[in-house]
Design goal:
Pfam families: MFS_1 (PF07690)
Number of helices: 16
Organism: Sphingomonas oleivorans
CATH class: Mainly Alpha
InterPro entries: MFS, MFS_trans_sf
Order of helices and strands: HHHHHHHHHHHHHHHH
Shape: globular
Helix content: over 70%
Distance between the termini: 29 Å
Number of strands: 0
CATH superfamily: MFS general substrate transporter like domains
CATH topology: Growth Hormone, Chain: A
Strand content: under 5%
Number of domains: 1
Transmembrane segments: 50-71, 92-121, 141-166, 222-245, 257-276, 288-310, 330-355, 376-394, 400-417
Membrane topology: Multi-pass membrane protein
Amino acid sequence: MTPSFRLLAKRRFLPLFATQFLGAFNDNLFKTAMVLFATYAIYSDPAKEAGFNALATGLFILPFFLLSALSGQLADTRDKARIIRLVKTAEIAIMLIGAVGLLLSLVPVMLAAVLAMGIHSTFFGPIKYAILPQHLKKEEVLGGTGLVEAGTYLAILAGTILAGFIDARTTALTVLGVAALGWLTARAVPSAPPSGDTPPLDFHIVRASITLVSGTMHISRLFRAICAISFFWMIGSILIIQFPPLVKNIFTADEKVASLFLAIFSIGVAIGSVLINRLLQGTVSARYAPASVVAMGVCIIFLALTAKGWEGLPDDRLYGLAEFARHPAAWEVFLALLGVSVTGGMFVVPLYAFLTTTVAADQTARTVAANNIVNSGAMVVGAAGVLALSAAGIGVVETLYLVSGLCLIAAWIAWKLHCACD
């Protein structure tokens, strides 16, 4: 067993890992089931499908804009384990709302659940990274971060695949059961009290957000790391929004294939998360980040070229999973998707570890929260960009070409970070 995987046998790490894994699984099982339902059962227009997916993405990330400053303050001034338990209790109620929406096919109720899930993730997100330096040794933090990222994307994988194969009733029961299980694992997370002084909370969310971001972004190394991560999430949000319409309208395949696309993306990020830890051997560094994101851009272009030359079935029929896999160009699609996601994982994981190891222990959660605010802004820009491009008549394939250009900007920022800090 490698040193990183040995952490899974430690009580100081395993309950946190299990809790975040179950939460990520539940989020993505519900979100994917909802998006596939809207894409394949409600809408029949690519622009409307992309618009709905962008709306769902926007609702999910809205709480990151509004509440990240408060969540960061709470995580740095209160016991992180106690906050985790409160958040996981709220998840049960959120999933109950989502289950009702699925069972009754009520789109507004499902969207309300997505918004509530965004609030849940806003408060849990800073903690799952900020708690690691408290519970792990310095040389274990990068490995722990890699495992958290790999676990998150494997959970996304499991939830995404399952969403394409079970009905609404089974999904509703599953999300409720997993929320209850996550509540149990959260109770085993060891205490993580605040370090240093505990200043009073600022409940003025606009002022607190401005103060939080300005207090972090003026530090050049953090500014570059956060900007690089934000470009990754902008790229990722555009790709995930476009995957269902891309599968349905370009690759002419059904919802099981759309689920497979999202699953392959998750597998690749998990592989990249572990691979970069092995390459860096526990050292927090942006050494491989520029090359990784350039390679990501090349793989996106490869995916676009494959999509442009794709031949669909006659009579407007959709490929099933088995038929799609037998298509002569299917291996090119799978290879491109895997390449995009592996290189993406290799790019972003060291940058998250950089955020949590280069600041004081009592500032880590607020640093991650500031990062979440900027990231969510980048994702909003990405979602708005999808809506604007769709309205302008620019198709999915052309959008992929534009996205590949963003990878060059991310590479330049990562190279500046590497030169300044490594």
